[in-house]
From TrEMBL:
Organism lineage string: Bacteria, Pseudomonadati, Bacteroidota, Bacteroidia, Bacteroidales
Protein name: Arylsulfatase
PTM (free text): The conversion to 3-oxoalanine (also known as C-formylglycine, FGly), of a serine or cysteine residue in prokaryotes and of a cysteine residue in eukaryotes, is critical for catalytic activity.
One Pfam family recorded for the sequence: Sulfatase
Native organism: Phocaeicola salanitronis (strain DSM 18170 / JCM 13657 / CCUG 60908 / BL78)
Sequence similarity: Belongs to the sulfatase family.
Length: 465
């Protein structure tokens, strides 16, 4: 990739600054000071819409604990997930690369990978490779104890591509490659504890003894207790509020004149919020709160099965999970570190590939980062410093199906693999006014830059590659 100076819209060379694939994550960050290695907890919701939190505008769903993280920390309003669906979004998060450059670019691949079943259909899935460096690999090299709780979704059908084989020291959850390891959904009888597949007796014989959210929170708290004397990285990836919306306790919303589907969806979010409150209470009890950085996000926007209209899950944004419009990829992103991260709301453009170089910087492990990253270190923003994150190309693709890119106020997108649509997101946040015909030169620049961002993949071959 080439460096392009940002001078305006006039010439091909002046439109984009594309970060070189091997750009140093530490460039320009000398002013940031964080004297001790913090514990790091990254909490990820599943299919939760941008506006499903009270602190992001929900008028219906109660999320007091997450709201408190936002009101006592930093809330980003223009954060983008790694993709519009689970596996590629999580791959971008874990590897620091966008979906034009990652190993996993869609939930199902077109070639290679490993063949398996989803329901009755035969599909192919790709998995993280042994040479894919993850956040856990980098932080482990810096002396962190690392743990993934619950959802991995980067193993495809390969039982050797588990979190334990991709940098994590501990794992408690489920794998795609062992189909029944999260069965039944939300009240599992089966679950991995590291390499061992165990039974959850509270859920034996179809009983609903313990919900997955509570089980995951218990696993997370146990990990923290065991590692209170060591720097640790906890990746807590809840299932909530992914469909099917299974939860017995809906008391928060029983008085509402909603369908049961809507009550259960909202309850899954509020129940997760309460679980996060318990985790925060445990950090207080262990006197770890002052040296623990907490990040909360969602892996993509709300899904078609969610009560999108009734609860306004994706806010004013167009689209939903599975699409590269704003509703599919714009997500909440909250950063909290008591006494270190200031109270602020930021509109900087950030996305999931930025997480890896940022956490590496905080852990003193930037020298352990691999090359060819697309993300940048955004730690200055965490500590109240200014930083220009908008004059670079953010890029997404579902190869051969959808593409999108954001640069400054402008966004180019197609969800049909047809001609690019063009929107000025600052003026048209709902992506309602396609300006492609008015500004064909901008579309041409986006087209050229997006092609440069795309690295051919043997698992998603395009014509001519």
């Amino acid at each position: 990739m080439k460096n392009k100076m940002v001078l305006g819209w006039g010439t091909l060379a002046s439109f984009f600054f594309l970060p070189p694939a091997d750009a140093s994550a530490d460039a320009g960050q000398a002013g940031v000071s964080h004297p001790e290695k913090p514990n790091i907890i990254f909490i990820l919701a599943d299919d939760m819409g941008y506006a499903d939190l009270s602190c992001y505008g929900s008028r219906y769903i109660e999320t007091p604990n997450i709201d408190k993280l936002a009101t006592s920390g930093t809330r980003f309003t223009q954060c983008y997930a790694g993709s519009g669906i689970s596996s590629p979004s999580r791959c971008a998060l874990m590897t620091g690369r966008n979906t034009g450059n990652t190993t996993i670019r869609d939930n199902f691949c077109k070639a290679g990978g490993i063949e398996g079943k989803k329901g009755k259909a035969t599909i192919r899935r790709m998995h993280l490779l042994p040479n894919d460096t993850t956040i856990a690999t980098v932080l482990s090299a810096a002396g962190y104890r690392t743990c993934l709780v619950n959802k991995w979704h980067l193993d495809g059908f390969n039982p050797e591509a588990t979190p334990l084989n991709r940098g994590f020291d501990e794992f408690y959850g489920w794998l795609i490659s062992t189909a029944y390891s999260n069965d039944p959904y939300y009240y599992p009888y089966w679950r991995f504890e590291n390499e061992e597949l165990v039974n959850i007796q509270a859920n034996a014989d179809g009983k609903h003894g313990i919900h997955n959210t509570d089980l995951s929170t218990r696993n997370a708290i146990d990990f923290i207790r065991r590692n209170r004397e060591n720097p640790f990285f906890l990746y807590l990836a809840y299932d909530a509020p992914h469909e099917p919306y299974h939860i017995d306790d809906t008391h928060w919303y029983d008085a509402r004149e909603w369908s049961m589907n809507t009550k259960r969806y909202a309850s899954l979010v509020t129940h997760m919020d309460q679980a996060i409150g318990r985790l925060l209470d445990e950090l207080e009890r262990l006197h770890l709160r002052e040296n623990t950085l907490i990040i909360f996000a969602s892996d993509n926007g709300g899904a078609v099965q969610a009560p999108l209209q009734q609860l306004g899950c994706n806010g004013v944004f167009r689209g939903r999970k599975g699409q590269l419009y704003e509703g599919g990829i714009r997500v909440p992103f909250i950063v909290n570190w008591r006494g270190k991260v200031p109270v602020q709301t930021l509109d900087n453009l950030i996305y999931f590939p930025d997480v890896m170089p940022t956490l590496a910087r905080l852990a003193g492990a930037s020298g352990k980062l691999p090359s060819r990253l697309n993300g940048i270190d955004i730690t200055p923003l965490f500590f109240g410093e200014q930083m220009d994150t908008g004059h670079r190309l953010l890029y997404w693709e579902f190869p051969g199906k959808q593409r999108a890119a954001r640069y400054g106020d402008w966004k180019a997108v197609t969800v049909t693999n047809g001609p690019l649509e063009l929107y000025n997101i600052k003026d048209d946040i709902t992506e309602s006014n396609d300006l492609a015909e008015k500004y064909p030169e901008k579309v041409a620049e986006f087209e050229r830059a997006m092609k440069e961002m795309h690295v051919p993949s043997p698992n998603w071959p395009l014509p001519g590659e």
